[in-house]
Structure formats: C-alpha cells, structure tokens
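Quarterly update from the structural biology core.
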Amino acid sequence: MKIIKILVLCMLYFRGSSQVIEMNISNIGQSFRIKTTKLNDEFKIVYMRRDTSDSQKIQAEMKKMGVSLALVAQNFGPLGPEKAREKAKEYYAMVDRYTYFRKDSISFKAHSEPAFTKAFTTLLITPQNTLNKDHRTGRGLLMDGVFFFWKIADNAPTKEVAAHTPSAQTHPLLYPYIKSILAIYRKQINGSMFKNFYYYEQ
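Predicted structure, tokenized:
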C-alpha cells in the first residue's frame, strides 16, 4: 500500500512538472533566444530576437571581464573548448541583462508536431557530455560561424550544452531540434524574425 502511494505521488509530481529547454543563438549581427516549455502534453515556445541593447553598459562590463570584440567575434574559440564555453556563458548572461527582445509565441499539443516532440525528448534524456560531443573529424579551430548554447531542465540538475555551427554530421542529436523548432515558426507564424538567418533560410 505504501509503495502504491509513493508511485501515485511520483506520477502526480512528474505530471505537474514542466520541462524547459532554452536555446540561445549568437551570430554576427544577430542574437536569438528560443524558450520551450512542456507541461503534460502541451508545448509553449517563445521566440525572441534581440532588438536593442545598452551598448555603453555592455562595453563597460566587457572591460571588467577582459573580453574584447575580437574574442566575441571568434565565439571565444581561442580560449579552447572548455574555457570558451564558460566565458561565453558569462558573457551572454551579462549581455542579456542589458538587452531588449522582440517576441513571438505559440502553443500546441505534443502529438501535432511529432518530429519536434522527438527532438525535444532526445535533448531531455541524453547525457550532457554526449550532447556536447562534436563529431568533426578535423581538429582545426573555428573562428567564425554561429554559436548555440542550451539550458535543459527536467526535474534534475540543469544540463548546459554548447555547439559551434552545428550540422547533421557534427551534432546529430542537436541539429534536429534546431531545424524542427525553426520549421514550426515558419509553419505557424511565418514572421520576419529569422529573416537572413542561415539556419532558417536553409
């Protein structure tokens, strides 16, 4: 009887708990944030694009952090993978404090978007180190491109994942999430937020 009560409580807890994936994207001249929340079988996605920011405050903070525009343009690549990930996290958190976004949002049932639901679930259940794995065969350092950073929360310690210009070959678990979440925007909103963004135009 006691075991049954525990199982019921666990089912109620997970049924009423939300799962959240936040994806930040940084490109030269473009910055996006896409936050997905799933509660039971309902998704809500908020799409955001950086509109304006307080450049004076950002520049002052960059000076304190020892971060140059050249380093940001290279997505912190010269620091090496681990330090680049840490510094990028610190930098983008700072920029966010002084940034204003334009927004679009949608809600839908999980069964109506099976490809996205599968990609979302994959990110939830896959270990952090697996998601962070880059399958590039070369060892060259990427100096430009698009930088992605995820925070993944699912009733456990938040996973943090980063990828530099991911593709189906280099990041086979992350790429379907990127493509499917942008496909939903195109199909259901079809606004101008992602105009000229490489991953949206493909």
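Residues 17-201 form one domain.
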